[in-house]
Amino acid sequence: MSAIGLKIPLPRSRHVLPGFSLSLGFTLFYLAGIVLIPLLALVIRPFELGWDGFWAAISTPRVLASLRLSFGMSAFAAVIDSVFGFIVAWVLVRYRFPGRGFLDAVIDLPFALPTAVAGIALSTLYAPNGWIGSLLVPYGIRIAYTPWGVLVAMIFIGLPFSVRTLEPVLGEIGQEVEEAAATLGATRVQTITKVVIPMLMPALLTGAAMAFARGVGEYGSVIFIAGNIPMVSEIAPLLIVTKLEQFDYAGAAAIGVVMLAASFIMLLALNGLQAWSASRR
Amino acid sequence: MTKKLVRPTEDPLWLKALLGAITVGFIGILLLLPLVLVFKEAFAEGVGPFFEAIVEPDTLASVRLSLIAAAIAVPLNSLFGVAAAWCIAKFDFPGKTFLVTLIDLPFSVSPVVSGLIYVLVFGMQGWFGKYLVGHDIHILFALPGIVLATIFVTFPFVARELIPLMQDQGRDEEEAAATLGASGLGTFLRVTLPNIKWGLLYSVLLCNARALGEFGAVSVVSGHIRGVTNTMPLHVELLYNNYDYVGAFTVSALLAMLALITLALKSLLEWRYADELAAVHRL
After folding, report:
1. DSSP string of A43-87, one letter each residue
2. Nearest to B87 among A24, A109, A120 (CB)
3. 0.95 exceeded by the pTM?
């Protein structure tokens, strides 16, 4: 240190600010220790028996049924969340009414409420003797303990994603474009379908992809309402837990790898969507 | 007859009413009804059983365990978030975008898979299983495993809030401080920290809520030993499966109150300090 306390950057340092090596070093160390190395343990595990072993673990009817349920129902839930998310975001952004702030804050409830709490609450609501379930029994509709219960839980958990991605974009496009369309002779329906929805498309797809990704992996809020009947309402994450309890580590890891691969693909798709929506701004 | 002039972008009243009703109905049935049910069921047999369920020793043990796990996981992830945001926002280096994607990764991994990876590393048939058994070190079905799983699922919260915030704020202020002779720590404490304090608080709040409420990942590594390795959400499951509905919904009500307080503080921060949070929260 010089006498006047002035720090002179070392000639070989390219940075004015200090702490680069320390912060990057800690970041990489922590990332590797907590995330990357354990994930590597998952990825290589099922291949200890080779591709054939991996394939044998994945291709049993029970595993395939659980993957079909998890992926199929969360895709369905993502579509429903997108439709209602669009309506909810439209109302919250465009209309002014008392209680709007409250409704807007409530949207995040599925993020904040622990999934086990959501799970037992949904299960109790939609059970045949529950507040909602008992209303549906006379019509022969059963939701809890059937695949439809899985759908309800996934709609619940995915809604904030679609609303929260649509709201800022909807607020940003403003009404000038719509006014321009109207001035040029477009009807209201044409304005919405040909101007507004195309502009919202990246956000709609982003929200749907995030809701889908969350639904595929969701555990806590689903298992209570699903009934968990093998081949019928058993989701893939639950089957991982079941296999672990039977000490079938390789089998559990095989399903885990499929789900991890799906997460990677969704992450790449989301990055692509973000680049697309940024290029349209 | 004169036709009233209407703005072309103004929705007609009937449409407003219809869409408003759908919104209120959908949010009411899907989101609010479960919340109302939690509190109704918790007090189903009156106030007495509610408080009896809280002071039950296993419930208190689960509260204590959840608080300990969060008290370790949240500060570690906050430290990581600040370090990651510092090197990513204040310096240029190759592979930065890829690093940001990797930091986000735990959010897109299923909670069950998040627990599974630690079983494959530390479990009996895992990488270090034999060594740990030989040396009588307990990671799975004990506090360290629960903490690791909690850290994993809450990993990106602080980093992903601070990275865009600090990128927006640029490096000018810190560089000015450094040029004027401030030390590295001094620059961070007096220049950077005041700029990011609300963003940090915001993300710590969300990180904490998730840490206390995590179910899937912790469920895989905990071993479900009643009164020992059961966190609050796991205790909810145990009570519910034992048909102790008042108990299950009482613990749920505590967690739901935590969620409501978190949401209220989150809304307050978004409303009061919007300019000092990452741009994604500004409407």
Report:
1. HHGGGGGHHHHHHHHH-SHHHHHHHHHHHHHHHHHHHHHHHHHHH
2. A24
3. no
CB-based contact B102 A35, cutoff 8 Å: yes
Chain B: closest CA distance from residue A269 (Å): 12
CB A177 within 8 A of CB A168: no
Where in the sequence is the domain holding A219, given as residue range(s)? 60-279
Structural domain includes residue A55: no
Q: Is the residue at A35 inside a domain? A: yes
- Whole-number Å distance between alpha carbons of B204 and A273: 28
Confirm if B238 and B230 have CB atoms less than 8 A apart. yes
Task: Give dist(CA B23, CA B17) in Å, integer.
Answer: 10
> Based on the domain organization, do A95 and A135 belong to the same domain?
yes
Q: What share of chain B is helix, strand, coil (3-state, %, to 5)?
A: 75, 0, 25
> pLDDT tens, position by position, for chain B (283 residues)?
555 666 767 888 999 999 999 999 999 999 999 999 999 999 999 999 999 999 999 999 999 999 999 999 999 999 999 999 999 999 999 999 899 989 999 998 999 999 999 999 999 888 898 899 899 999 999 999 999 999 999 999 999 999 999 999 999 999 999 889 888 899 999 999 999 999 999 999 999 999 999 999 999 999 888 889 999 999 999 999 999 999 999 999 999 999 999 999 999 999 999 888 887 765 4
| CATH code, A199 | 1.10.3720.10
Say what the ipTM of the complex is.
0.92
Report the phi/psi class of residue A186: left, alpha or beta, with left for phi > 0 and alpha for psi in -120 to 50: beta
Query: How many angstroms separate the Cα of B106 from the Cα of each of A193, B102, B113, B152, B155?
Result: 36, 8, 10, 6, 7
Q: Which two tokens stand for residue A94?
A: 């465009």
Specify the length of chain A in residues. Answer: 281
| Residue environment code for A174-199, b if the CB has 16+ CB neighbours within 10 A, otherwise e | eeeebeebbeeebebeebeeebbeeb
Residue contact B219–A219, C-beta within 8 A: yes
Distance between CA atoms of B277 and A280, rounded to whole angstroms?
25
Residue A80 domain-assigned (yes or no)? yes
The identity of residue A174, as a single letter, is G
First to last CA, chain A: 49
- What's the number of domains chain A is made of? 2
CB nearest to A256's CB, from B23, B41, B113: B113
* Chain B CB within 8 Å of residue A160 CB: no
A50, two tokens:
């080779």
Is residue A209 domain-shared with residue A238, that is, in the same domain? yes
Closest CA to A120 of B276, B92, B40: B40
